[in-house]
Write a structure and sequence with these properties.
The chain has helices at 22-28, 33-49, 56-65, 67-71, 103-117, 168-171, 177-203, 218-224, 263-275, 278-282, 314-324, 330-333, 346-351; strands at 2-3, 7-8, 87-88, 91-92, 121-126, 135-139, 144-149, 158-165, 208-211, 229-230, 236-237, 245-252. It has 353 residues and is of the alpha+beta class. It has one domain. The longest helix has 27 residues, at 177-203. The N and C termini lie far apart (54 Å).
């Protein structure tokens, strides 16, 4: 058994099949299809009743926040925008490889570029194969289209891992729609940041693969890159923003200097979560573990067993999302490491200057 800042039972652990992610499962797993139907029916009821936090105005606001994420097809593409003319005033940048003289200075500049484009946090780690999906899932908005194996291009060995802070005031209205808008805007910012960063790297003559939730598990890569630690709530918890972040990454062959995991924070959070149950207590469907100690046992096929942690139940979590006609961030905002109010009514969000 391997033991470091996480423990892995090599007799159990296998790379995750993205098909079993809840956002894919509800498209092919017949036991979950009623959840999808509830969304549309209950949404209409909320609009007709003008329910606070779930009005027509709120749904319009929330849906629009996802626009860049949903409508920018090149953001999460391995090739970027191949239709874009590579010539820049008659010069093809990508045909000449940028010469890196000082890897430490260069890495600092790349991080600066990521922050300039909108990253809140950025770290560099070796691309660990065990976090790459065994198979990737192909899907449309309404249909699961199948799985395919992942083969990264030769030479890709670094992950630039980025955390995007979500709007804390919006999140604090959870489970109302302004919180979903904060999530959606976080995803749209992901699309902006990694598409710009990927193009920047390719313009230097190197490879870049832009990823959101696809291709590989984001949380362990973020931990490897020094951004934070895994909480009882099943989320990345960062020292700066708690669990109030979205994660994205760019895989590359740039010779970047590696960051180290934040061992002191990992230890601090591990000890803290053992005695704190606030996220588990606030979860309406009891999707978060009340166990005193983490273990290696998965709860559903949407977990990946073999890593010692507190396993959440994604099916129960998704069940509440369906009932709520939106997502839920209660386990984020109640966390003591989240640096904002844990709850405000949606009308207070709109009245905030």
């Amino acid at each position: 058994m391997e033991k470091n800042y996480y423990e892995i039972d090599q007799n159990i652990y296998q790379r995750f099949d993205q098909k079993n992610d809840m956002f894919c499962r509800y498209l092919w797993d017949d036991s979950l299809k009623t959840f999808r139907n509830n969304f549309a029916n209950d949404m209409l009821t909320n609009i007709i009743e003008n329910k606070e936090g779930y009005t027509h105005f709120d749904y319009a606001f929330s849906k629009a926040s996802w626009t860049v994420y949903n409508r920018f097809p090149f953001a999460f593409s391995w090739e970027g925008d191949t239709s874009f003319e590579e010539d820049w005033y008659g010069y093809k940048l990508r045909e000449r490889k940028y010469q890196i003289k000082d890897p430490i200075e260069f890495t600092a500049k790349v991080k600066k570029v990521a922050r300039f484009y909108g990253a809140s946090l950025v770290g560099i780690t070796k691309l660990d194969e065990k976090w790459i999906y065994q198979k990737a899932a192909k899907r449309s908005a309404q249909k699961f289209l199948g799985s395919y194996p992942i083969h990264l291009p030769e030479g890709i060995n670094r992950a630039i891992v980025i955390a995007i802070e979500m709007d804390s005031l919006g999140l604090s209205t959870t489970p109302a729609l302004p919180a979903c808008a904060a999530t959606g805007l976080g995803y749209s910012k992901m699309a902006l940041v990694i598409s710009c960063l990927g193009e920047f790297i390719r313009n230097l003559g190197y490879q870049a693969i832009q990823c959101g939730n696809d291709t590989a598990l984001s949380i362990p890569l973020a931990i490897d890159a020094g951004l934070g630690a895994l909480g009882r709530n099943g989320l990345l918890v960062t020292p700066e923003y708690g669990p109030g972040v979205r994660i994205c990454k760019v895989f590359t062959d740039l010779p970047l200097v590696l960051d180290k995991p934040n061992f002191s924070f990992i230890s601090k959070l591990s000890n803290f979560c053992k005695r704190c149950y606030q996220c588990a207590e606030v979860c309406e469907t009891k999707a978060i573990s009340f166990k005193a100690e983490p273990d290696f046992k998965a709860v559903t096929i949407s977990n990946n067993p073999g890593v010692k942690k507190y396993y959440i139940n994604p099916e129960k979590c998704f069940e509440f999302w369906a009932e709520n006609t939106s997502d839920c961030s209660k386990c984020i905002t109640v966390c003591p490491f989240f640096n904002a109010k844990d709850f405000i009514p949606s009308n207070e969000f709109w009245n905030e200057k």
